[in-house]
């Protein structure tokens, strides 16, 4: 079946199983590997992307649900890594292994788009579904607040 | 299948040093260079090499005629910051401008020395060696300039990417000197700079791979895409040592996109780095391979481990520590001292199996070329990967190339290359490049588990409450069982919190009791220190409670006065000491005391009951580093016990990158809290019960402490380990805090077994 995804502003016409999770469509068929597989069961948040601006877990989102819609991945969050969250992440040296961080940033970006100055509790609630095995949670809290102070949202 | 080209792991320390922006010594690294041509393109490689003439005095340093400096990082990056740290030792010795340094990741090859990135020894093992490699290049650049200027080399200096002759005010850039220097002999006697001249080493260094991580361009094992690549998902035997006796591939082959169903050879014990066997489904993409695997019909034979059951095994271990074991440490006469003691304190501790659960499940890509094989893998141990692939394919090692990607976490799991061998076997079997992708379920169910352990501790106290006798029995299936048929532990495991614990007690005996393994046992970040520190540091707090004293005072009393603890005092004949000599790295209780005193000061120990909180303390030396931790717990609004705040004070000797030391110790707190609170792998009928983060629970944001304070209390003397030693004191400090808060002593981990957390 033909599926059209608008990924980071570019259309991709894919002839794939409509049940395929968006995660694998992005990684294996669109060729964008910044979105990570961590659990496949909506338990870790490594695969979070934006679907029409909403944070979704790509590992449990059938690609047909994204048909004709706008998908933003970490590669498309900003043209040059200059989103306030990306800048705060680098400045505070948040990542350790980095594998969870695309999902953390995409989740945080959706949060800031709705709530430009989140409290610690807001951050904890929004990011509760994002695991970091390396344990960078405290730096992430600080970085989200720093990005919020820098005027948070996308664009 | 389309995808980005293969990106070799090279990254520039480019300019754009926004020092004010980040507050870091080098500012933030700027953008990574554009994607490189495919690694397998020989023409591109040759072109790069031709352009790459210049000074190459050793494998690690390359100064090009255009002034670029390439520095090789031969150890694997898994979040500990090795790529942001080790190359700086070379660059500083050289006198390079960091913005013109590019870091290139080495493939697996013994020519680079030890590449097995575990045991927390990247800095301590390579600090001087790497400096020498940089110094060698610097001496040659200086010699070239001195020759041109007809001056004595010792009147020249190298800094800011150039050689200078201060007396005459002349300077020549490294690039201008590279070719002339390359024609000079490589010096034999290498002169290191005075340490004060190392401009960046020991400071907060920026994160080399940070920009690539946050824009999604950083490539991990699963992100490598080769033309025509297939993806394999493997059904492995549920029980270690089991095998498929029959399988029907019809359903799998009917799934669109599935190309082949390939049985993998069953391993023979000892399992070591062999793949587990099973049946692989090879498909055009990951989803098809997953669907194909779900359609496989397989009959498994469980084999010798089919009865392994965690509840039963718990009784086995308890029985083992109830009987004398092999005496591994002895001073004085414990029997007589116990008999004469006014009272005894006794406790049994149990720590379950744990899984590594790296955020990136194991993944590797392999391409078989007929007489050679090339693999890309997130591996901690590229040389073992190379050896294992060569053996499995019947190739000479020279014909196997192992490219190292970034690792999405390692923690010891990725030093075992079984998954890399799977990729190589399947690439050979199918004739196509193959990526093996482990699902999270595969990862949790087929790990090399952290072992399960039971310990029994007994202390004899005299009438004044002084500890006069100490007996410690430990039983755990050893890591050695993965590599040979053994049930007794190695000194390398026993030194981790049994043999090496300073005890100012006159009569001490430690015993190791036999325990057979029924699954693959591997090393997990901080290894045997996890359970030994948990038991010993909990027990010391139990002694304090038994005699109604301050746990800190009791801990300091048992650690004893400041001194160098000899083998004789320990009651052992030898100590592996993490591969370092005791002369250079003695057991120095002054350093234990210093971290204890500082951490309790920071945590305001004397007011430990303020604001409804309760504190727990623990100290532990591991990987030669001294760490003391205080955990503060409170009652949460939901009836749960909450970890509110944690302090971790460390002395790891001379450091390279202070920022990454902080980050490792922050991460170690969360890592250890996850295990202590929730971590447990259990077995039934030989198979792992847990399968994903639903039942192998990790700490999440809402449960993470409000604050973690890390303080480096000393940073001189020989370098010690950093990646692991932050872990061991956390669990006992937490258990001690919970006791202070609730009066309930947790001896069985995880804490979630007995309390709401
Ligand atoms: S991979 Fe989607 S939530 Fe874990
Ligand atoms: S940085 Fe490694 S999992 Fe988050």
How would you sum up this structure, described in words?
- The complex is a heterodimer of chains A (155) and B (757).
- Chain A is α+β, with helices and mostly antiparallel strands.
- Chain A has helices spanning 22-30, 84-91, 101-114, 120-126, 137-149, and strands at residues 2-7, 10-15, 48-51, 54-57, 70-72.
- The longest helix of chain A is centred in the last third of the chain and has 14 residues, at 101-114.
- Chain B has 757 residues and is α+β, with helices and mostly antiparallel strands.
- Chain B folds into 3 domains: 7-215, Aldehyde oxidase/xanthine dehydrogenase, molybdopterin binding domain (Aldehyde Oxidoreductase, domain 4, 2-Layer Sandwich); 221-304 and 372-437, Aldehyde Oxidoreductase, domain 4; 310-354 and 448-753, Aldehyde Oxidoreductase, domain 4, CATH 3.30.365.
- In chain B, the strands form 8 sheets. Chain B has a 7-stranded mixed β-sheet, sandwiched between helices. A 5-stranded mixed β-sheet of chain B has the order 1-5-4-3-2. In chain B, strands 14-22-21-20-15 form a 5-stranded mixed β-sheet, with helices on both faces.
- In chain B, β4, α3 (82-94) and β5 (101-105) form a beta-alpha-beta unit.
- In chain B, α4 packs across α5 and α11 packs parallel to α12 (418-430).
- The two termini of chain B are 46 Å apart.
- The chains are: A alpha+beta (155), B alpha+beta (757).
- Chain B: This is Molybdopterin-dependent oxidoreductase.
- Chain B: Residues 215-304 form the Aldehyde oxidase/xanthine dehydrogenase a/b hammerhead domain.
- Chain B: GO terms for molecular function: oxidoreductase activity.
